[in-house]
Amino acid sequence: MEIGEGLMMLGKYIGAGLAMGIGAIGPGIGEGRIGASAMEAMARQPEMIGTLTTRMILADAIAETTGIYSLVIAFMILLVV
Amino acid sequence: MKISLTRSDKIFLGTVFAGYIAVMVYMLATGYKFQLEGVGQRWIYQLPFGEGPMSRINPLTVIMTWVIMALIIFVATRVKVFKIIPGKKQSLLEVAMEYVYDLVEDSVNKKEFVRPIFNIAASIFLFVLLSNIIGSFPGINAIPTDGGGFKITILSDTWYAPTSDLNMNLMLAGFVFVMSHVFSIKAKGFKSWAKSFFEPAWPMFPMNVIGEIAKPVSHSLRLFGNIMGGGILILIIGYLAKYFIVPVALWGIFGLFFGAIQALIFTILAIAYISSLID
């Protein structure tokens, strides 16, 4: 294997790992805050658990969007380029 | 909750299950090896005329789109006559449609736009939901080979979900984008629609344009990343576990659960984008 090709693969793998790892920080914090708030609300009003759970899952799915973007970028680095 | 199945349902489910078992035994007996070749690759067909990316098509996306449209039309013809005492299919459809109708009615303030927006939202919801769910069952797929051809895989991969192709999602999001502006012009008039780009002052015009263009991009990439990422994760984790039990749970999570949630979110965002422009 040529040195250039090896360097390219090195960059690809490190770049994909960094993209996914750093990109997962934001959605992690966001989903944690959503979960914490939902737990508080559920403890205060246990009769609302059904509604709160669906709303929480919807908010989670929107909050993880940026994480999904970094997943797409990581896959594009690995598979497309 | 007790699920009661009729005799024909049991026969149908039993036939499908026996078919899966038979194919699995056949594959194991003939020494089939599960392998990771072609992950994330698409079968692309170059049309005989033209050059460049505009003359290439993804045949599997086209085929599966038509299959799903045919499924929806088939179901629609079967429950055309709505009865007062609903059957199984009719009550399922009524629950889904009522949910979407409530969403539209809650977020759209102008009464005359509820019906057309509901038609768009319900079509998008049914199509995206069905194509996400179909991507969670083992079925027929095609992966490209080195020579430019393709190889058909049976039951070693899931059905090909059209929403795991960015072209499909961009088309849906672009449709929502165009329809939102059409509704906006209809509701507010051309002058007031054009004026909304210069709010609050004229130097904000580029910001408003970029904000509008960013909508379909984020709208389509969200669905694409979820479905395609889920599919690739299932393939890789299933390969690590040699397709032993684990993929069933993964198909349940990524296909059914995330697929249904993403279909719902796609619909909610489409309704929100349209209704935010007509107020």
From TrEMBL, chain A:
The keyword Ribonucleoprotein does not apply. The keyword Ion transport applies. Residues 14-77 form the V-ATPase proteolipid subunit C-like domain. GO terms for cellular component: plasma membrane; proton-transporting ATP synthase complex; proton-transporting two-sector ATPase complex, proton-transporting domain. The chain crosses the membrane at residues 13-36, 57-80. CDD domains: ATP-synt_Fo_c (cd18121). It is a multi-pass membrane protein. InterPro entries: ATP_synth_csu_bac/chlpt (IPR005953), ATP_synth_F0_csu (IPR000454), ATP_synth_F0_csu_DDCD_BS (IPR020537), ATP_synth_F0_csu_sf (IPR038662), ATPase_proteolipid_c-like_dom (IPR002379), F/V-ATP_Csub_sf (IPR035921). This is ATP synthase subunit c. The gene is atpE.
